[in-house]
Amino acid sequence: MRNRKHPQLLPLLILSLCNTLVYAASTDFPSVTVPALPAHDGKSLFKGEPVPIVDWMSPDTINFTWGLTGVDNFENLMFSTYLFATLGSVVALLFVFRTFIYHINNQRLAITVASSYTTTASHFYSLPPARWFSLLRRHLILAPLHKLRHNNPLIVDLSAPPIKIHLGALPSRLNFIIIVLYLLSNILYCTLYLPWDGSVGPDGKLREPTKAALVAEFRGRTGVMAVVNMIPLFVCMARNNFVGHAVEVGFDIWNLFHRWIGRVVVLESVAHMLAWTVNKVDQAGWEGLAEALRVNHFYQVGLMAEIALVLIAILSASPLRHANYEFFLSMHQLLVVFFVAGIWWHLYIDILPQMIYCNIAIAIWVADRIFRILRILKNNIKWRRKGLSFSVAEVAPLKGGDAVRLSVELSTPFKYRPGTHAYLYVPRIGWWQSHPFSIAWLSTEGSAQMIEMTQMPNSLEARNSTLTATAVEAVSHSQSQASTSRNLNAPKDPYDPSKYRSGINSVQVSVATVSHDGTSMRQKTYSNLENCLQDSNPHRPLPASPPSFMVRNSPALPVKHRDLVATGTPKKTTMHFIISKHNGFTKQLYDAAQSAAATADPEKPKKGCVLKALALVEGPYGGHHSFDSFGTVVLVAGGVGITHCLGYVRHLLHGYNEGTVATQRVKLVWVIRKSEHIHWVSDWLEEILRMPLCRRVLEIDIYITRPSGTTNGNGWAGRGGLVKIYVGRPEFEAVLEKIVRRRIGAMAVTVCGGGAVSDSVRAATLKFVDQATIDFSEESFTW
Ligand SMILES: Cc1cc2nc3c(=O)[nH]c(=O)nc-3n(C[C@H](O)[C@H](O)[C@H](O)COP(=O)(O)OP(=O)(O)OC[C@H]3O[C@@H](n4cnc5c(N)ncnc54)[C@H](O)[C@@H]3O)c2cc1C
């Protein structure tokens, strides 16, 4: 069974730690409002510019434009804690829900495997869920906000000038509700208990003027809430987001929350500044305000942070963000430096108690950067006798066009989880850029180790009902070896197809079939086990439950991975990416790879046709979804989204052979524009199709939406009925309906592709959530 990490209590601990720190810092807080700098001596803390000497008890607006006069720190602290509690409760709820689902999945996996994939277990798990649960999923958890649109962005296509205005995608219904709750809680916490009738001073009398007192308290509240919100804002942007890891929520969702929290921080800090402006203008007029900004560092750095923040908000608007993402990202990061520096200084000058929140936010940012650097060092730096060496990537244009394959050898072995992605840095293209790409394939070369085949497939008698008696003899066919106990070069990579080729497919299998009456015997030799299985009855439809030979606890097991004892550590781990061409980094990479190929020496095609460039891999990230406990898994990929699905297909097939997953049926639906795009991953598809028992489990449907010339998918149609090629767009509802009817156990549907494909698959899945237990997940390639 796959050893998945149990969700941690870490996020809750971190939250309580934050609150404890805040409380600790607040013990010295005045419970009534006092000026921040009790002894103004006519000099400020910085550069000695004059500060007003105020009598804060006098009924003068000036009191409320300076320091903490009129600011109720006790209430601010209370509402900060409420905000943490609100966010913490959402995280805790998510955590409880995920843990619940995690245990259900784990239990299903354990029972299915332990019950040897019996029809009873599969049937039980194929039953529809409780009505309340399917309603919850249909109308809340999986539902788009409105009708069908979720991931498909709203794009306004102007004809003159020919511009596409990207208005962004809509959040899902659940995310929308979380966002609304968060907005409401901020509005409440910024406005509750404000002294609408005038605040009471330490002398027990109403402060005068009351409007100035109200505005001052509002200024304090909004300023505090803006700084408090920096903590969730920074948590959401971190690639190494431990909260996200614990609740198993992907970066695209955190990114959505990051944007909304950012908007709230902008609104609150603008409100903070406006409140100060109102009192200042009332007290000293616009000239006084200009003068204050001219001479006072406290205001200057506050204004700097404010300007940076407003610019961030403008640049983050979807049309600008998507028009040039790289420009947006660079400006965003630069402006964040100004914003954080400004806020920090603003708080530091007056030693304001909210400093702690700002420091925590900075600590989160620093910790994330440290983790990112450590990941890069771990993956890409090798210490050799000659000195340091870095990873070098090979980038080759793909035959299918529009994409390159980037392969990079990592410096340390890599623990791969399907569904993960990594960030790529290719300094030759842009040293400051890093782009996320799904890890399409991982190949590992092992050290040459002696391994023993500890169990031969010595009995296949239960394999097919047509065989009344069998005598199966596995003999080594290797020309170099003649005994049944063989030495093989076994890589440690559990997925390595060469293992299957050498470990299983290279085993010749002789099957002696005795007729029913026992009078005749037919002997046939197969070149590999897979052919033998297939030949036993190629037309037999897949059974509702696996055939009895798949009984996992039977002694008559087919050769399994655990039968091959590999002791060597892998020598070389190579990570492969398929990168499709867009307009920025990916286009430059594609062009560079094309020109390397074009200038290749025809005499030495191998040497020159591949672009070699320094490339750093940061990752892996994501990979929260596991389909191991689902009997039927449907993976839908649109275009380059296939990179997300391949790892799962390989993992599930491997698990099926190992008896470590509940999956017994895998359907891969791939929608591509041109048939040539199959070449992007054809080598890996070949490897998958060579995996043992693949025919029992896997079906691949490829839809070519704009075929040119041949429609047989460049010879991919057929493959013993495993690969079907269609022309046109798939009708996802019809596709799913067929699978739902023939499902085994619980079902999972996952989609990775353009917004339109994702939304169609989601809509189709929602139609069946009350007919079967169906899990739905999607991976988005944009945010
Ligand atoms: C988790 C994940 C996995 C992905 N896996 C793959 C993959 O396997 N193969 C593949 O071809 N593409 C993949 N992508 C998409 C890929 O990251 C973008 O296509 C690439 O960053 C575009 O770079 P560009 O400069 O050429 O883009 P541009 O032409 O400038 O922009 C194209 C689009 O890409 C998005 N984009 C640009 N830069 C980034 C960035 N740094 N981070 C996030 N989005 C960005 C923009 O929102 C824009 O809409 C993946 C994206 C994500 C989020």
From TrEMBL:
Q: Which residues form the signal peptide?
A: 1-24
* Subcellular location(s) per record: Cell membrane
The membrane topology noted for this protein in its Swiss-Prot or TrEMBL record is:
Multi-pass membrane protein
User: Which reaction(s) does its UniProt entry say it catalyses?
Assistant: 2 a Fe(II)-siderophore + NADP(+) + H(+) = 2 a Fe(III)-siderophore + NADPH
Q: Which residues form the FAD-binding FR-type domain?
A: 385-627
* Segments traversing the membrane: 82-101, 174-196, 222-239, 260-278, 298-315, 327-348
Biased segments, Polar residues type: 476-488
Superkingdom per UniProt = Eukaryota
Which keywords annotate this record?
Cell membrane, Electron transport, Glycoprotein, Ion transport, Membrane, Oxidoreductase, Signal, Transmembrane, Transmembrane helix, Transport
One GO term under biological process is:
copper ion import
Which Pfam families is this protein grouped with?
A: FAD_binding_8 (PF08022), Ferric_reduct (PF01794), NAD_binding_6 (PF08030)
A single MF term (Gene Ontology): ferric-chelate reductase (NADPH) activity
Task: Write out the ranges of the annotated region (Disordered).
Answer: 471-502
**Principal cellular location given in the protein's record:** membrane
Q: What is its EC number?
A: 1.16.1.9
Provide one Gene Ontology cellular component: plasma membrane
Q: Which PANTHER family match?
A: FERRIC REDUCTASE TRANSMEMBRANE COMPONENT 3-RELATED, FERRIC/CUPRIC REDUCTASE TRANSMEMBRANE COMPONENT
Q: What does the similarity note say? A: Belongs to the ferric reductase (FRE) family.
Q: What is this protein called?
A: ferric-chelate reductase (NADPH)
